């Protein structure tokens, strides 16, 4: 059975992009593949976090995974910092496989550090893609379902795996990224040229999975639209295209059908219907989250960490042996 691994950072409330670009895909993969989903808390601390809030968010992301349909009977769910082999393999890859030349090409670091001050960005932020490679390679991952912004990082994991294998013999499986068609890049509601992001400066950029119906309606009403008034799915109307993608992914309707449904109607009608589709998904999701207790979630995460640790320990022992450490 092919192995799937992916993760989300507990760095803010999850938004529609996280669900439609990544988690929705994970849910559908669970019955066919051997799936592991991680809450990557060590990635979140590459930028400043408030400790009490971070602890809360780690459990909240775990609750969201379950309420979105990740089933602990089918998938391993765990918190990255519960499995020490991730940081251990990250360090080893830093030393024996990753090169400064690879790292300087990483666009997410350039984007994130450009927003702040490069001189003051953490070393961890720069090294973030190597930790992500360690996450993936520890579990013999074949496929990594992610949004488009993470493809470059999965490519790096492939490069590091190949380089390690060449030098020390066959150790790592070479992973492949997997994108969804319409969900791979959900754009900001306030700016269709930038991806929807938790760290956007305006809350009108994103809809979080915990937004109330009122807030969802308001954000969709305020979403930017293109010139003209017809509902057509075209590259010339990037803002509307993004809204149609969201509608299509939540309703299961094809983009062609949506165009047909709205012939002769305007943006106002379409936006109202879109808000309904999103709210119809979010309200029952939020109900499911409310029913979950921290205690239950912690039990699931502990079990997941035990299973992940078993697999990761075997791999890290093999790696250490191959590079000449005494095991
Ligand atoms: P930030 O932008 O603040 O760094 P994020 O919103 O990108 O955070 P992550 O935890 O980095 O969230 O991403 C989790 C998963 O969601 C990744 O697979 C990522 O590719 C995917 N993802 C994030 N934003 C989008 C988006 N706008 N469209 C599609 N997929 C996305
Ligand atoms: N960098 C990813 C989160 C992440 C991840 C992973 C995704 C960390 N480790 C391993 C897939 C596989 C992001 O979404 N920002």
Detailed description of the structure:
The protein is mostly helical and 327 residues long. The chain has 2 domains: 3-179 and 294-323, Rossmann fold; 203-289, Tyrosyl-Transfer RNA Synthetase (Orthogonal Bundle). The protein is built from 13 helices and 7 strands. The chain has helices at residues 16-29, 41-44, 51-68, 85-96, 100-103, 107-115, 123-138, 151-168, 213-222, 238-251, 255-261, 267-290, 294-323, and strands at residues 3-8, 34-39, 75-79, 143-145, 176-178, 187-188, 191-195. The strands form 3 sheets. Strands 1-2-3 form a 3-stranded parallel sheet. A two-stranded parallel sheet has the order 4-5. α4 crosses α7 and α4 (85-96) runs parallel beside α13 (294-323). The radius of gyration is 21 Å and the shape is globular. It starts with a strand and ends with a helix. Bound molecules: adenosine-5'-triphosphate and L-tryptophanamide. Residues 5-7, 9, 40, 43, 132, 135-136, 144, 146, 150, 153 line the site of L-tryptophanamide.
Q: In CATH's first tier, which class of the largest domain applies?
A: Alpha Beta
Whole-angstrom Rg: 21 Å
Count of folded domains: 2
Strand content: 5-15%
DSSP strand count: 7
CATH superfamily of the largest domain: HUPs
Mean pLDDT: 95
User: Helix coverage percent of residues?
Assistant: 55-70%
**Main sheet attributes: strand count, strand direction, barrel closure:** 3 strands, parallel
Task: Output the helix-strand order.
Answer: EHEHHEHHHHEHEEEHHHHH
Query: Helix/strand-derived class?
Result: mainly alpha
pLDDT below 50 for ≥5 consecutive residues: which ranges? none
Q: What ligand molecules are bound, each kind once?
A: adenosine-5'-triphosphate, L-tryptophanamide
């Amino acid at each position: 059975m092919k192995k799937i691994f992916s993760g989300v950072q507990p760095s803010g409330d999850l938004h529609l992009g996280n669900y439609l670009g990544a988690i929705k895909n994970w849910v559908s993969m669970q019955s066919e593949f051997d799936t592991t989903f991680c809450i990557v808390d060590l990635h979140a601390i590459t930028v400043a976090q408030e400790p009490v809030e971070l602890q809360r968010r780690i459990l909240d992301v775990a609750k969201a995974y379950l309420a979105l349909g990740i089933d602990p009977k089918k998938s391993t769910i765990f918190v990255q910092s519960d499995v020490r082999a991730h940081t251990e393999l990250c360090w080893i890859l830093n030393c024996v496989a990753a090169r400064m030349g690879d790292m300087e090409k990483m666009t997410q670091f350039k984007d994130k550090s450009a927003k702040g001050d490069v001189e003051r960005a953490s070393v961890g932020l720069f090294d973030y893609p190597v930790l992500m490679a360690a996450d993936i390679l520890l579990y013999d991952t074949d496929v990594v379902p992610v949004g488009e912004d993470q493809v470059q990082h999965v490519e790096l994991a492939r490069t590091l795996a190949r380089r390690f294998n060449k030098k020390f013999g066959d150790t790592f499986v070479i992973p492949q990224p997997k994108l969804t068609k319409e969900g791979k890049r959900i754009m900001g509601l306030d700016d269709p040229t930038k991806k929807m992001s938790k760290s956007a400066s305006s809350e009108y950029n994103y809809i979080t999975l915990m937004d109330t119906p009122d807030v969802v309606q308001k954000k969709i009403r305020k979403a930017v639209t293109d010139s003209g008034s017809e509902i057509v799915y075209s590259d010339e109307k990037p803002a509307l295209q993004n809204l149609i993608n969201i509608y299509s992914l939540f309703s299961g309707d094809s983009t062609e059908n949506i165009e047909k449904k709205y012939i002769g109607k305007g943006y106002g009608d379409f936006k109202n219907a879109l808000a309904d589709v999103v709210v119809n998904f979010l309200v029952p999701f939020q109900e499911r989250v409310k029913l979950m207790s921290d205690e239950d979630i912690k039990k699931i995460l502990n079990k997941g960490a035990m299973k992940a640790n078993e697999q990761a320990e075997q791999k890290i022992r093999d790696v250490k042996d191959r590079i000449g450490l005494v095991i």
